[in-house]
């Protein structure tokens, strides 16, 4: 099955499912959480800001009366916060984890644990979260882990000789490396978990969210911020449309392990469809090397069965 005419009306009944969506206070994450909740899932909106996260829950419950949604504080740039979130999550099983949160093309900085911000938040934070929640994912028959990558992953492969870009930081290359890491992580999960858990990935194409403007706004580059706002208005599809590949990957029947979905028209916009990915993101040795490095950096092991 492909998603050539797939929309939110095609979501299956998600009653009795528990879903965790990171970065769910706005943009793609919020739309993903809202539609999963409308489908009947109990959704945890995992957000860094408590104020924005609780406001998003209130908005979701207003837009989807009768839905089950709650806030959980999660800062992917702080491994102590990741551990606390996992420890405090009050569910014995998790049916769906959507690794959606991310930062894009920000100035050089480091996380609370000293990792380059984009690699630390986009990959290592989600790697640790997935590892910590893995026993509860494996306890749910048919559980899925959906990791949101980007078509811009094609700009660069992961460099494990310098994962934190200390030698030569270029913001877009660092972003691309983090998004390639998302795909390699998905490949490793799919390869090692076999039929016990479905690990897939998605990307939104070019969707209008605050991801494009957050970096220049933080730096005070008002001109760049306005240009990106204009580009979002003219060229981008909506967050509602951009979330469809993620929702398809998370819920559609017939999805295969390690699949990668994006918009059908030139990876840019349109209904969900299988997406092209760079060949380095399906390299078994590279995926295993990234897993080993990520385990060492985060202190979180993925105790997965071989094969």
From TrEMBL:
It comes from Streptomyces musisoli. NCBIfam families: PRK06197.1 (NF004846). This is SDR family NAD(P)-dependent oxidoreductase. Pfam families: adh_short (PF00106). Belongs to the short-chain dehydrogenases/reductases (SDR) family. The keyword 4Fe-4S does not apply. Keywords: Oxidoreductase.
